Structures
1.
Amino acid sequence: MQSLEPGHGPATMTDWTPSDAKTRSLLRVERLSKRFNGTVAVEQLSLDIYQGEFFALLGPSGCGKTTLLRMIAGFEQPNAGRIVLDGIDLAPVPPHRRPVNMMFQNYALFPHLNVEANIAFGLKQEGLPRAEIAQRVADMLALLKLDNLGRRKPQELSGGQRQRVALARSLVKRPRVLLLDEPMAALDKKLRDETRFELMELQRRLGLTFIIVTHDQSEAMIVADRIGVMDRGRLIQVGPPPQIYERPNSRWIADFIGDVNLFEGFVGNDGASVEGTAAGRLRLSGKIDAKPGVLVWVAVRPERMLITRDRPPTEVENSVPGTVAEIGYLGDLSIYKLRIADGSIVKASIAHTGRLTEPRLSADERVWLSFLPEAAIVLTR
Amino acid sequence: MKPTIKKPKRRPWRPIAPKLVVGIPYAWLIAFFLVPFLIVLKISLSQSAIAQPPYTPVLTLAAGLHGIRDFFAGLSIDNYLLLASDPLYLLSYVKSVEIAAFSTIILLAIGYPIAYGMARTPRRIQAVLVLLVVLPFWTSFLIRIYAWMNILQHDGPLNQLLMALHIVREPPVWLATDTAIYIGIVYSYLPFMVLPLYATLEKLDPSLLEAAADLGCPQWKTFWLVTLPLSAPGVLAGVLLCFIPIIGEFVIPDLLGGSQNPMIGQTIWTEFFGNKDWPTASAVAVVLVCLLVAPIVIFQHQALRTAGEN
């Protein structure tokens, strides 16, 4: 497996830590714009990708994430801006000379070539000696557990096997950056869940830089060191998954990543509370980054909401009465939709930990909703 | 007592309709290909005669078994021996294969870029281009060949153009040359080459070309390593659709070509209508069919192989 490690000799998994890798920008995207017949695909987008990181571009379909990936690969030319890899501007470099490889969403395996020839295709273009090509192809087949499928044609493989061949074909060239366009979209759920962890394992083991494009937020959260959330051609927020989830920078992000309850109100005079919301006056744990009187939104995740039958003690200020409108049972947790005084719906999820002290709630039951000041964050846009 | 299920005595009912449907093409082939071929084969083994029909023996079932024995005794392979002994026929076959082979190569060289260009234009324009390719079919084939006779004649539009552009000093002779045959054949058969090529190239997944580029393959090399191998079924279909009918082509060489070295279609015509020698004409035709069966078998084999792969 040593031959698969990048330049600096053998490395073990323990050598790799996220903090090591993020010291140096490998790929820099500067104010990149792309329009198709007047419609904006990517708009003034800037981004740094670090050596050895697993970066996820996440966003709804049509947000421009695939266009960004295709511009890095060289299949689309930007209208403005630069892409710099290892300090070299990629603009004049045609796709076949870029030290990046792409794994296509439909895998794009050559139907007239067998698995081995598909994987060897890229190495043959480099004009490597035959023995080295054979060795590297064999290593790849072993790494991706494709050992006895080398002579098969792509159409004789299952979906999961095809995905592995596509991955092997793009990895065997040891790209500076591996681009993955929705690599798991064509797999069924069970296989997708397994493959996510295998992909992470692989990336860590090879120490390569991966950029994955996905519309599936749980996929991005699981595999990525950092996530860039895109909407309508713009990068809305970039950060590690916990930061994106816990500290979203806007209502759009809070709503796109996971589920959220939003309470609209005005910053109170003490600067640490929000007044006039559907749940009354809400107290926050720290000072709000906005002047008193400004319109803000208090965001609380459903799993941070507490449901009690009795009124919480009066010192818990963030509480509101409501009635159970809908119950969704998911096995590991239940999702409750509760209607509060102004008629709006608040979502709360309760994990079933196996220690059900209280009997479950039933529809139309009157309950109290509350949350701790630390559980909420204030969004200004 | 255990309940028992009565076994049906009759064999399970099977629908007969599917078998009938499968039988239709066979019936068609037997009625319109095999039976006529056997008739031609029989005539090729007969002798020319001044009679109605112009050959002997004729099978007369009225004479009973005796008649059938006489009939078979009357058949001979003399006509085939004649084909082998007279170089006229051999030269005619060679000429046909030569013209068919070279014009198929020219057709491929012209047709492939056309089909490739069509497949890569935006989809709305593609329909128009396909229409343009088949548009000549809306005019009678014979009229189009007559038009070429006009274009290629001594003071025709082609020579006038060449003179006006000072490309030639003296008007060259086109008609009654092999060049005119090639022009006519390539013009007439181009749609048969372009359409199957276009059909396969149009289905080619563009992400395969991107994948090749991504893996370090320059565009010209991608053509050889990906596009061409994947369009092989289209190339084969186009080549056979042109090569086979061109071998037996009669009208184009007869109207545009010279008389010194006829193609096999012309030879059959001369034997049949000129010499009224049906048996020899039939023998020439039977040999031609045998010549054509070889490429068809190759085509079938290839088609079955690709079908098996998918």
2.
Amino acid sequence: MGPPDVIRDERDDATLIAQSLDDPQYFGALFSRHAPSLHRYAARRLGSDLADDIVAETFHLAFWKREGYDLARCDALPWLWRIATNLIRRHYRSEVRLYRALVRTGVDPVLESHADMVAERVSTAAGTSHLAAALAGLRKGDRDVLLLTAWGELSYQQVADVLDIPVGTVRSRLNRARTKVRKVLGGVADGRE
Amino acid sequence: MDESEPLQKMRSQIPLRDPDELAMAIGWQPGEPHKTRRSRRAWRGFLPSSSTVPVVPARRLIIGAVVTAGLVTVAVVGPSLVPDGVGSATSYAGSAIDIRQEGGQWVARIKDPLADHERYTEAFSAVGLKVELQPRPVSPTLVGDLVLTQGEDGTTPAGTFAGGREPVNCKIGEEGCYLAVRVPVGFKGEVRAQLGRPAEPGERYQAAASATDKGEVLEGVELDDRTVAEVLEEVRKRDVQVVYQMVKSDPDPSTVNWIDGKKGGFHLSYEPIASDAVGSDWLVWAAEPQSDGVVRLGVTPHPLEPVAPTSTDGTPGS
């Protein structure tokens, strides 16, 4: 008595991937499920233009590699985010440039591509630029962990799967990143900068 | 100072995009070779995207279409072919489908949408086209729409495959009203297309518009923030049978599967529920046509909370 599956899909990711081997259209359901959050994450880190490319490339690569997908893994999120994370890594320098531009100008360059956000841009300044400064100063691995949890909303286990590191390492990197960021933000609160 | 608030603030300024809109904007669809940004731009507004697949209401995925009134029977015993002198015919006329060239396009008019789809394949083949047409039962407003257009290896075929009712907006089933599939003359590849046909009595739709859309069974009925009792009052005025499914929201933000421009992103699951288990004060989430004269109400005892906002002005609850 479920809805007809052309309308909605409740199958898990692994089932969709298996079905997509015969009918590529099933892969579209995987896109619908995961692409928006992945795009938002990539857009926050690199701006929407690069995010467009990264999401397209991620799903392109995933599609062509889908035969090798381990169907025992019902949730394809770690697989897709791992591909995306590797693509995002190519742009670390751009990412840091964006943070520094924000610090310098008080305007978030990532938001400039969104025409409807002019009002937001003006108010961006305050705590955000200090945060951006802190993010620019993090180690790459620590920043990945912090942003996958905060902007990607991934669980520790999902972050561990995406980065292929133990959960304990996720925790320690996260602690280190948070400590460092709080130090910068705390300096702001004390008026020391 | 805690870092989570400024992090959330930065994130909340980035919109969560609708998957169909996103797929089209970045030119992605299953099997489509990755293109550069420049060439992808040229693509916008072309064929719709990725998904005939679930997750989103099928009506957003649809472009154009072709099918016929279907019920116009033409007493032709065998198809008639007009040869072009080089092996394939320039037109085909059979009891299921007519195909002829008109203004640089092949125009196929389906006379019998319930025919074995091999009949269409044979007809296209007779004029030198590799087109596989598969009619699917759909809710009334999707009749004639192409719900899938796919070339070899899942790629989008080159050229424009379109359709529409002829004459425009005519009523399928009435004499002289056709939905026609158009294929560019000179198209060399293979394409598979699914198109909406009227459902038979009791036959379940494989794609449906919203029940409240113009032309569907609950046209004009307001659902937002209304209770089951309120909606049923309207339903009773129309000879429509109701079935229910319960809609639940799981707080798993990683798998948003329903995006509403106003309400935000949701991770929803559905399960059938007997009508006597549904409270009259429950809220109606959505109404979907299920088969002719049957509408399925998605209901929920409590308002559903979005797991992600789509707006740019903050996180949920802000």
